[in-house]
Request: fold
Amino acid sequence: MTGGGAAISVDVVLAELFAAAAHACRDRSPLTQRLLTDAAEDLRQGGVTTKIMAGSERDREGTVPGLRFAGAVHRLVLEGRAPGLAKHYPSVGGQPNLPTLWEDALPALNEHADALRQRVLATVVQTNEPGRSAPLYGGLMVAAQEAAKAAGRQVPFCVRLLEVGASGGLNLRPHHVGYRLEDTVLGDPDSLLVLDPEWTGRPPADLGHRLRVVGRAGCDLNPVDVSTEDGRLHLSSFVWADQLGRWNRLRDALDLAATDPVKVDRSAGPEWLANQLARAERDVLTVVWHSVVWQYVSPADRAMGRAVLADAAAKATPTSPLALLVFEPRRTDDDYRFELLLKLWPAGISLNLGHGAGHGTPFTWDVTPWE
Reply:
């Protein structure tokens, strides 16, 4: 009796995580919201979703099991294995009819339950959202210029960009992306990827300067090879299927990556970062960057990463400065707020540069101290 009660309580908790993920999609992806809302109810009733999520019942909230489920279902559609469900998915030319979505999903869920379960167990949420290159670009401009001012230089520093949790590396080429602002395009106006950053305000930097990136590297526990069909499908499956703007943006980012490949190392962040920071480059600003990855990092790795960064920060010099630039969510009263935070060593600068949507756009530049 006790064991049965425990199993029911675990499914209820998982259903609540699905419902929370559905709530996070509100007003942005009606398709994903409805799918997860119906799946949450199916979990409460012990339906097919319970079978698909078997083995994931006790996953941490930060692993977002609901979005892993939605991604697995979307991939099934992208692979052409759920034709009855595809008619609801704009990513393959469909048009959502929300009242019949779950009814049309059930045959595919039942037929492919084992494959979906394996997909959910084996994957982590990875959109590698290229829209985050917009706040990254502005943050790098601020960092390069503020570090130069602190060092008494007239010219902004060149940047060596190190990304922890880089996924497929799509945000490791911010200098090769175009950023359309009213009557001008910052960055590379001829890029295959031109973003509308939807900025309110502007970065506190001279945007007439060119961002010079002289080195790039990234790591991930589960790197995605975007040169392969499997890698492209993996990232595509986590884009909400009714957000065609994001879908097309990812297509452009993948095309850009094919012309400018950057290898992402398979490694835990602390060890990789320690190796990268072991050498300092003169007249180069080293920037450690991560975006929407902190929730997936274990407490032990968080502590180790902080220690590695503190050690490198203590060794930073005006001619070989170090920066931490992050775009991560902070919990508010009833939601999350994604903030762009910057620290510079040895300048001692610590700024909250602004906040935006989790996918990087829109973004509001509003500089305050990072406390």
User: Anything to note?
Assistant: Residues 130-369 form one domain. The first strand starts at residue 158 and ends at 164.
